[in-house]
Design a protein that fits this description.
Layout (H helix, E strand, L loop, with lengths): L3 H6 L3 E4 L2 H6 L1 E6 L5 E5 L3 H26 L1 E3 L3 H10 L3 E5 L4 H11 L1 E5 L5 E5 L6 E10 L2
Parallel strand pairs: 4-5
Antiparallel strand pairs: 1-2, 2-3, 5-8, 6-8, 7-8
Length: 144
């Protein structure tokens, strides 16, 4: 219970010091991202924690980036769009003609909406719904 509040709040590192640790001039450092425990000398702890926080940040960023990339599916037609939306979910990268009418019809039929229009990723194609020319793909997703 004494650690639960901090775990809920997302504190990345837990440092525990007990009477035996003080005798040994060490402390326990627990990483919440990998559940790894280490005993470090008190004199080395500041630099260790500083480096550890940078490592945790990089680890969490890479994990989130990989999760995002694994949950984006590229489609080229509306049938595949509907199948992916119903069976897999996540984000769908598809061509859109840029009109509100097409976006509203896709939303009406699938409940999926445009979540992001990626910058700098132009790739000409055809809209999955209307077949009209499209400058780039956009990310669709369904709200849950």
């Amino acid at each position: 219970e004494k650690f639960a509040q901090h775990e809920i709040q997302g504190v990345p590192v837990r440092i525990t010091i007990g009477p035996k640790d003080l005798e040994k001039k060490s402390l326990e450092i627990f990483r919440r991202d990998t559940f790894e425990k280490k005993f470090i000398l008190i004199n080395d702890s500041v630099q260790y924690v500083f480096n550890l926080l940078t490592e945790i940040q990089n680890n969490l960023y890479e994990k989130a980036l990989n999760f995002r990339d694994e949950n984006i599916t590229e489609v080229d037609n509306f049938e595949d769009f509907k199948k992916i939306l119903e069976n897999k979910g996540g984000f769908i990268l598809a061509h859109w003609d840029g009109t509100d009418d097409t976006e509203n019809k896709i939303k009406e039929l699938t409940k999926a909406t445009i979540r992001c229009i990626p910058e700098g990723k132009k790739s000409p194609g055809k809209c999955i719904f209307s077949g009209q020319p499209s400058d780039q793909r956009v990310l669709f997703a369904k709200a849950y």
